[in-house]
Design a protein that fits this description.
The complex is a heterodimer of chains A (about 270) and B (about 550). Chain A is mostly helical and about 270 residues long. In chain A, about 70% of the residues lie in helices and about 0% in strands. Classes of the chains: A mainly alpha (about 270), B alpha/beta (about 550).
């Protein structure tokens, strides 16, 4: 498809969101260049130091530089957000499209499966799957893919159900197009806008649950720098050294904020919620 | 019909200007429009979509549809006050109380979860400070006046329990509740069937006579104006091009645009330019043969309810010969669209047979469908919704050509260009997407897509209903030329009888899923045999004001 670029005034929300996420992505890519210290180097002489010129965000109970740990942590957390959204999005889109398009038995079976998954609380199901697979990032991604696709499937299915009766879909059938052509070339491109918007807010949820799971000791293992672990580790020292918890916590909030701004702007541009 | 009282007009608009502020600066949507409305007068505001006629009325009550719009000049004086400079609070008191509004789509302007009677009483309690009991009594009185047959019971009904025509009556009742001086009716009958339209128009005229109400009637249908209005104002591209008493204006239009508008009105009066009947051809096999077709949809009666079904098409038999042009007319719900879809294998057949070129769709479904997909095509009602918004027109056409495989791949771009020329579209538009085109252009693209199949049969389902009158006339002309120059069989479905009369040789009248009458167009329209057909024809608003509208009594046809 050739998209003639329309001169359109830039959406300020989109620009701001992209700037925030882009900043974190840049930090993650250039971590070895910009981080002032090694994120796992323990300096016994500099424990629990408050923010200063030498350590802008202070140091933790092992004397590690918090700023460096946050910069390196961006690598892990961004990866979690992207992979944790990508697989559910793809799986959910395919399953939802098939259920909506074919209807009948296919639809009934897939929808009951979704009901079963939704019957469990999200985190409980995630934790059980990770507990079975063993702690670690790859278990987290697998659990996310197994559980997270249901919302995408329901979104796409609802869209396809509406669109398959639209005149252009009927027209496509009446012109002798094959089922897969009608579904993948005509219906799917017109139904993904809502999911793309949702996947931005979903990235926020993934980020938070990733942090929560690391916090519970089932995700990223120490001493790897990850914001969720950093929050967990700092908790014990909250009364003496607030900076250990505050800065990684703020990073999570900012990145989440960036994603949700992109989601909002996309929704506006694509006319999902007019 | 009463004549407008001479003297000072009730509402006097001078030099009303509305602009839209965009990225490229200001653009005028209404430029210096001046109009008067007398007491008890019905003023028809005519123009195509985008001409600014709705905007004009909305700016009178300060209900502009977007914040990018602003009134930048002019006055609208009513009872010594300039409406345009009223504060929001003063305007709030005036809206509804002095100026009532009704809209095209009554279902989207009535609150679906509020009883109809309460919606009428609400205005009475707010503006006229009536108590609950008094408001209810008054609301029932108003409902009686607008033609509810059992207002005491219908007071407690919800909007979805009513038909479109009754909902429009409810809207009118809501608007009348506060006894306004002016009623603004924005395309009040466009979404309604022709017989219901006639009833609503009759009601508006009665209300004018009884209450001395002044009405601004916005419409694109010159027939409606000719039948109901005292004066006509024609708008185009934000400007008032012409206004005057209706007889003068219709008989002697001054502005070329008004002349074009009148010329493109498909009046029933004008004899259809049908060619002399073709010499009797040797008996041929019908291209499409429908035999006692039933299409039923299940209506679920709840978990334990009995399974019932609704017959959209109930026993239709029809033969269509190659080269014929057949019109199918009927009101909404008559089953004409379902019939069209069933003909092309797009709706399930419950009973009966559909045969295409001798092959039955029920006996040899796959083979017949395969054949049909390569020899028949459909044109749809909504020009935007029938094209994939993500593909350019060129891509849409090229895809059809590729899938059908009748044209060599290398020749596809040339064929796309040829198709666009065939439907009189500039081939330069091939790179545009549907949203960058007008409704008429989109419909042409939809026809080009149908022609890409090189069909023997085209089924056009209400394909001009969503278009402006002048565009309608162009599309109908296009069809006529295509049928004349190509070996095409056309099934043209419409609720507009006048258009069918212009285009088709044979007409089929449907009602409640059955064919009530069929025959040569000229004959059916001149001498309808069935009362239903006669009522349909009589309800069409003629552009000649001296051929009065004949409104069938409410409920007579829907029984």
């Amino acid at each position: 498809m050739s998209a003639p670029a329309l001169p359109r005034p830039l959406n300020p929300t989109l620009v701001a969101g992209l700037a925030i996420v882009g900043l974190f992505a840049l930090a993650a890519l250039a971590a070895p260049l910009i981080a002032p210290a090694d994120p796992i180097y323990q300096d016994a002489a500099a424990r629990l130091q408050a923010p200063s010129l030498a350590h802008p965000f202070g140091t933790d109970n092992f004397g590690r530089d918090i700023l460096s740990r946050i910069i390196y942590g961006a690598r892990v957390d961004l990866q979690m957000a992207v992979i944790g959204v990508f697989f559910p999005l793809v799986i959910g889109t395919v399953i939802g499209a098939l259920a909506g398009f074919f209807g009948g038995l296919v639809d009934a079976v897939l929808m009951r499966l979704i009901d079963i998954i939704l019957a469990f609380p999200f985190l409980v199901l995630m934790l059980s799957i990770i507990a079975i697979l063993g702690p670690g990032l790859s278990s987290f991604y697998i659990a996310m893919a197994l559980v997270g696709w249901v919302s995408y499937a329901r979104l796409i299915r609802a869209q396809i159900l509406v669109l398959k009766n639209a005149d252009y879909a009927v027209a496509a059938v009446s012109l002798g197009f094959s089922r897969s052509r009608v579904l993948f070339r005509h219906l799917l491109p017109n139904s993904v806008a809502g999911s793309l918007v949702f996947c931005m807010s979903d990235a926020v949820l993934v980020l938070l649950s990733g942090a929560a799971i690391s916090y519970l000791g089932l995700g990223v293992q120490p001493p790897t720098a990850e914001w969720g672990i950093m929050v967990a580790e700092g908790q014990a020292f909250l009364s003496q050294a607030w900076w250990i918890t505050l800065f990684p916590g703020l990073s999570i909030v900012f990145l989440a904020f960036g994603f949700s701004m992109i989601g909002d702007a996309l929704g506006e541009i694509m006319g999902v919620h007019e | 019909m009463s004549t407008p009282t001479p003297g000072a007009p009730l509402l006097s608009v001078r030099d009303l200007t509305v602009v839209v502020r965009g990225a490229q600066g200001q653009r005028a949507l209404l430029s210096r429009v001046s109009l008067d409305l007398g007491k008890g007068e019905i003023l028809g505001l005519v123009g195509e979509s985008g001409s600014g006629k709705s905007l004009f009325c909305r700016s009178l009550v300060q209900l502009l549809p977007s914040r990018a719009l602003a009134v930048t000049g002019g006055t609208a004086v009513m009872a010594g006050r300039d409406l345009l400079s009223l504060s929001e609070a003063d305007m709030g008191a005036l809206r509804g109380a002095k100026i009532g509004m009704i809209f095209q789509n009554p279902s989207s302007h009535l609150d679906p979860v509020m009883r109809v009677g309460d919606q009428i009483a609400e205005g009475l309690m707010f503006h006229r400070k009536l108590g609950r009991k008094a408001a209810k009594a008054e609301a029932i009185a108003i409902m009686t006046q607008v033609g509810f047959t059992d207002p005491a019971r219908q007071f407690a009904s919800y909007p979805h329990e009513f038909s479109g025509g009754m909902r429009q009556r409810a809207m009118i009742a809501v608007a009348l509740a506060c006894d306004p001086d002016i009623l603004i009716a924005d395309e009040p009958t466009t979404a309604l069937d022709v017989t219901i339209q006639a009833q609503i128009l009759k009601l508006l005229m009665d209300l004018r006579d009884q209450r001395g109400l002044s009405i601004i009637l916005i419409t694109h249908d010159l027939g409606v104006v000719a039948q109901t209005c005292d004066r006509i104002a024609v708008m185009r591209q934000g400007e008032l091009v012409e206004q005057g008493p209706k007889r003068d204006l219709l008989a002697r239009p001054q502005h070329p645009y008004t002349q074009a508008l009148i010329a493109s009105h498909p009046s029933m009066d004008e004899a259809a330019p049908t060619e002399p009947p073709a010499p009797p051809a040797p008996p041929r096999r019908p291209l499409m043969e429908i035999d006692d077709l039933h299409v039923r949809y299940p209506v679920s009666g709840g978990l334990f309810g009995r399974r019932r079904s609704f017959s959209a098409v109930a026993g239709v038999s029809l033969r269509i010969m190659p080269g014929e042009t057949v019109g199918i007319v009927g009101e909404s719900g008559s089953g004409k669209s379902t019939l069209a879809r069933a003909m092309l294998g797009l709706a399930p057949i419950s009973d009966g047979h559909v045969s295409f070129d001798g092959d039955s769709l029920r006996l040899k479904r796959d083979a017949t469908l395969a054949k049909m997909r390569r020899q028949a095509a459909m044109v749809f009602q909504d020009p935007f919704n029938s094209l994939n918004a993500r593909l350019t027109i060129g891509e849409t056409l090229a895809e059809v050509l590729r899938v059908q495989g009748k044209v060599a791949r290398a020749a596809i771009p040339a064929r796309v260009e040829e198709l666009l020329r065939l439907v009189e579209l500039d081939p330069g538009l091939a790179g545009r997407r549907p949203r960058q085109l007008s409704g008429g252009q989109c419909q042409r693209a939809g026809i080009a897509r149908a022609l890409a199949v090189e069909p023997r049969l085209i089924v056009a389902d209400e394909c001009v209903a969503a278009l402006d009158v002048t565009i309608q006339a162009q599309i109908v002309d296009l069809f006529r030329r295509l049928v004349a120059t190509m070996d095409l069989t056309l099934v043209f479905i419409a609720h507009d009888l006048a258009i069918v009369r212009h285009l088709c040789e044979r007409v089929v009248v449907m009602h409640h899923g059955r064919i009530v009458e069929e025959g040569a167009c000229a004959e059916v329209f001149e001498h309808p045999r069935e009362a239903y057909t006669a009522a349909l024809i009589a309800a069409i608003p003629d552009i000649d004001p001296d051929r009065p509208l004949h409104a069938p009594p409410a409920g007579a046809l829907t029984a």
